[in-house]
Amino acid sequence: MTLRTLKALMLRLGFWLLVAVLMVYAIFPFYYAVVTSLKPSSELFEVSYWVDSLDLANYATVLSQPTFLAAIRNSVIVAVSVVIIALLLGLTAAWALGRVRFRGRTTVMMTVLGVSMFPQVAVLSGLFEVIRTLDLYNSPGGLILSYTIFTLPFTVWILTTFMRQLPDELEEAAIVDGASPWVTLTKVFMPLLWPAMATTGLLAFIAAWNEFLFALTFTLTDSQRTVPVAIALISGGSQYELPWGPIMAASVIVTVPLVVLVVIFQRRIVSGLTAGAVKG
Amino acid sequence: MITRQRAATADVAGDTRDAAPLERQADSLHRERGTRVRRRRVRAAWLFLAPMLVVLAAVAGWPLVRTFWFSMTDASLASLEGAQFIGFENYLVFDNGWYGIMADPLWWQSVWNTLYFTVVSVALEAMLGVIVALVLNARFRGRTLVRAAVLIPWAIPTVVSAKIWAWMLNDQFGIINHVLLGLGLIDAPLSWTADASLSMWAVIIVDVWKATPFVALLVLAALQMLPSDCYEAAKVDGIHPVRVFFRVTLPLIMPALLVAIIFRALDALRVFDVIYVLTSNASSTMTMSIYARQQLVEFQDVGYGSAASTLLFLIIALITVVYLYLGRRQLGGGS
Q1: Which end of chain A has the least Cβ crowding within 10 Å, N or C?
Q2: What is the rounded radius of gyration, in angstroms, for the C-alpha atoms of chain A?
Q3: What are A181-211's pLDDT values in tens digits?
Q4: CB A234 within 8 A of CB A251
Q5: ipTM of this predicted complex?
Q6: Which residues does the UniProt record annotate as the domain ABC transmembrane type-1 (chain B) (predicted)?
Q7: Is the CB of A127 less than 8 angstroms away from the CB of B140?
Q8: 1.10.3720.10, 2.60.40.10, 1.10.10.10, 1.10.110.30: which CATH number matches A65-279?
């Protein structure tokens, strides 16, 4: 074996080692959560790397708690409503920003970008007042309203980017036929924008599903909590006796749908993230 | 689109130069119709923008103004309406000694913690992100699988990843201590989240794990758009790959990396969830967001808490402006 082939072999080995380390680093924590969630509580405090026994007691514990089920219901309601609102408002705004030239367009774009850079805490007390005035405190409505602050800006940006990529001829034909902007948007653009809408909808769903600060601050009772807050507030007899088994089971339950979505729509998500960022 | 349509009308005008007056009249009618369509489109554009602008004003603009206002009052959570104007007393006031946020050592510590957390975690994410992107950009079997796997940490809710890592970093039963003890790297279990000197690192570990995929994806997108010819030239010239990376690749992906860095930095400066779940309100990891929320909600002091929020907003705005200015200048000078 010559020195050159040895070197090439070492390089190849090093590369595959790097890939392996990367895979373990990315997957292991979630894998370990799954392993922990499937352990009986008596074995919880012995470290093990494999699932020895399939014990579903932790899942039974979590799923028999009405507060956790309520949290899942609330999270679904909030996330789905946020996606619908963000797409609806985002799509009309994206048509205006992407297809029409008018004075003040850049200002609007910059305002939207500025809002996406807001620290959420900066509006916390003002938003609290708005939500209380509208009588939405401690209800999903308050969260749906407040979540538009971070879903709307990126929805508008990404949809505008995609809207600009569509050819002009489409719309010209519609204008010659005397179609109104609304008809053009719904009949011409929407069918073509489905992929982009799926991407942004997915990103908005993930963002709403994962949000914590507003959900923690704008809800008060267990029946109105969302999933992240419910998990964060699971507690045991004392600070040092956290029920790790049920916590891990709850974590797995709320994360599996997201992981499945991400693995299936990997390409779409990547294109959405880069479209939003490159223009930003 | 509009310009193109105008060009079309101009063509028509060119063709009909020698035509009868009647047709010329038709042409001017056509042009008039063009501007009318255009005007109608602009009006429709504002109409279509209105719902989004109204919602953003309600959830962002107005609350921001109200937060500024509250920061100059003695408002409390129980009586928002009865708030009295007190000027800058929440920020800094002299009353036989300095009082207010800027005289609070804990606030200064939270500022320092936030900056430390931001610089360290974003630097690590940028470095790891570039490495991960380079790996994913190589051609190998199973690349799609690895790419999907790398996305997983990004998809997991922050609260959940904080909980999972809290369990892995558990001082008595955590797998990290188990592994480190097994390898002989430490003599006694470390209490990652309770020990003041370690807890910031625990937070950074979780954040880097969660956010590196985002940086990697943006850099990967830039890598895939690089021209292959300069690499072939470098290969022919026998230039060392490491040198090629620093001389060719890195400068070319720099714009994407800078975008990723500012996105991450803005996120890190307002960090809340990871820290709230991992270490709660401990002073060793208290950031500006944690500080402001504690004042607002737990101590119910809306005036003081709003002042802390406002300072966070101003600091982030300042850093953004400086970064954009420096970034633009550097990019301008480089090209």
Answers
A1: N
A2: 24
A3: 888 888 888 888 888 898 899 999 999 999 9
A4: no
A5: 0.90
A6: 111-323
A7: no
A8: 1.10.3720.10
